[in-house]
What does this fold into?
Amino acid sequence: MLLINIAGLALIALIVWWFWFYKPKEAELGESDLVITVENGTYSPSRIKVPTGEPVEIKFIRKDQSPCSETLLIPELQISDTLPLNKLKTIQLPALAAGEYAFHCQMQMYRGQITVK
Amino acid sequence: MSSVNTESGKPGCHKDTDNNAQHHNHEHGSDPHVHVDSAAHQELIIEGAGCASCVGKIESALKAVPGVENAEMNFAQRTVSVIGNAAASDLLKAVEKAGYNAKLAAAENEDDALAEKEKADQAYYKRLMKETWIALSLGGPLMAYALITGEVNVNTTTERIAWLVVGILTFGVLYFSGKHFFVGAWKSFLNHSANMDTLIALGTGTAWLYSMVVVFFPDAVPDQARHVYFEATAIIIGLIDLGLALELKARGRTSEAIKRLIGLQAKTARVIRDDKELDIAIEQVLLNDVVRVRPGEKIPVDGEVIEGHTAIDESMLTGEPMPVEKATGDTVAAGTINKSGSILFKATRVGKDTALAQIINMVKRAQNSKPPIGRLADVISAYFVPVVMIIAVASALTWLNFGPEPAVAFAIVSATTVLIIACPCALGLATPMSVMVGVGKAAEAGVLIRNGEALQTASKISAMILDKTGTITLGAPKVTDVLVAGEHDEQAVLRLAATLESGSEHPLAMAIVESAQERGIEMGKVSNFNAIAGHGVQAEVDGKTLLFGNEKLMRERTIGLGDFVEKAQALAAEAKTPMYFAVDNKLAAIIAVADPIKEDSIAAIKRLQHNGIRVVMLTGDNRATAKAVAEKAGIKEFFAEVLPEEKSKKVQELQMEGEVVGMTGDGINDAPALAIANVGFAIGTGTDVAIESADITLMRGSLHGLADAIAVSKATLRNIKQNLFGAFIYNVAGVPFAAGVLYPFLGLLLNPVIAGAAMAFSSLTVVTNANRLRLFKAQEH
It folds into this structure.
């Protein structure tokens, strides 16, 4: 029983760490072309890094049929847009100050983050 | 294949970084991602470019067009991004000359996009329904068997084999009907995120795995715990798929308003080019094209009438039911319907620039924006799923440690039920669905709401400041009274006065000329016209000496006024401007001019007051006029002699008193006051809407739009609150119940199947409740 309890508590710790504390790598916006794919309930890549002080464009392609994935919101920038199915959609970002800007679907089940550095 | 572009020379980028930055800064906070200055950056779609070598050819053809700074083609997408100030028509011609076809990408056909979306949604719906039937056709009979026989235990070898078969069939259901949950859960897990898929996959996966353990290793679990939960697994998957399908259908209805707006766009236009009439797709209509519209047809793009006259039904855009007369020089708007005559007009705004396209864009954006009330739900949804997972584990541990036998079964059931019943979707959907319907509903009434915040604040307005001129009144002076003296005839007096004033550009003079024209009076000829500064005018018409001006002018010329002085004072007290008119040095009439109150202003103001809103009038006019207008309009409070720059101070004064202030103006000199108010309302004139100038734009001039806007906001906010309350209560009550908090007291533990049904229908309930808003009707009293 002790073992089960320890395993259970470890599982809780693991959930906390995996979903909240672990910071996955950000996809760099380097020379290579980058498209954020919306599929299977996620943005992939979900974390991207963009330079400060420059307007940039981010491209999305939605392959997920769920209506939830249709809307893209970047609340801090007051951006809300519709992502068409299987079509590239370019979202233009203004020149941004350094910081983190979350993007997500209407219900926040699809979540991503733009880090401006 | 495509990119996140910086400004350094990639497709779709801008060279003019400074301009671009300004452009974005300017738009920041309103619309940072939509390009307004289409002249600087145009995107063409190229047809017929089959090989990569075409790229150079097309690019150089475009670069040769005067005004083009750069042209870069993305071969994969068959698009060219052109930077520079060249006319679109020149660009298209250049590409055609090079041997390819091109069209402007900016004018993407919304109608087609919508049709495509509906097709995709339809296909998705069918798939979900198929998955539902597969899951339920296994789950249903299994559950019936379990309920009737109560035999879901695994004790004998025969039972083990039978249940193994069922287990494999259930796996089939998980694969065919539930694969998307598992794939989604796994992908998000890898992404360090969790969503609804995670909960469903974990819940049904746990139930199935436990059941398989029971089948394969019955000895590993206590006797009483040898239950299998295959029926629950199949039914939960089926119900959730069904919920998703029904939600998809219900969601379709939430965007009805935008569909209707998109449907207003004409598909083709009849343009005259090189003396030939051509029917072309509206995306191909260029600026300055001459367009012909026959009776009954839709106006395809915005323009200015150059020939013919007609009446146009603009109700679909402005909510104004009466058709509007249009003649040469008048503007027409895309999406409105030409009723009577045939007209030719010159295209002044095409593609994404038409008022209709901008309205669609604005409504779409507003529909996707969130009012502050939704923020708490957002914060909760961000942590929701992992928290539910933790609760599930904690609940299982609690049952294992303290629960009665069979503790393992209780632990599994409670953990599964917690995972299944929790519904982040209902919480997440609560706000956006209502906003979607509410903003759309407002647009139908001719009220454009900029964003969710404006919507929420509008519902709380306690004081409304109305600008007088152009808001409460028509904004154009009109002749209100002609009081003739002695034997004079009103028509004749008006003819002489109008003839006299026909050379003047003074607003009061124009009102008299207009009044004569309205009555079909032909004007004569003026001679010896003389303006007497500060007094009035003098001239000769038909050999008579006419004098038109104030009392002082009459007294100076020793013209007897008699009791007309009192009559003039009475008129002045009614906020009218009386002027004396003398013919051959004898008083002929008093003509009074005033800016009349709009027909429905009084009723609309009453409606606002009836809703408990403190209505305050603001004007630059003198106290007497202000008082008269306020009294007539039924307004108790007013500020008179307010300079334009002081308007915003008055807004602040009310705010200091603790009021949530709405400010309504025509947007011309009211911009600072509109900006400082809690909600700024701009009154549009017809379809010529000042979309960017206010939080809420009323497309028709009537003040009823204000009451409508506030009523829609209130209804929407009420709807959001119902949804949020429902979703909170559902989760707050459902999750602990599922974990088994009631068991020690009442011996109640929730069945996972019921949890699945509750979860599947909770988000459907939210969408359905939001759809109730569609029935909302603004009441004009």
Residues 1-40 of chain B have pLDDT under 50 and may be disordered.
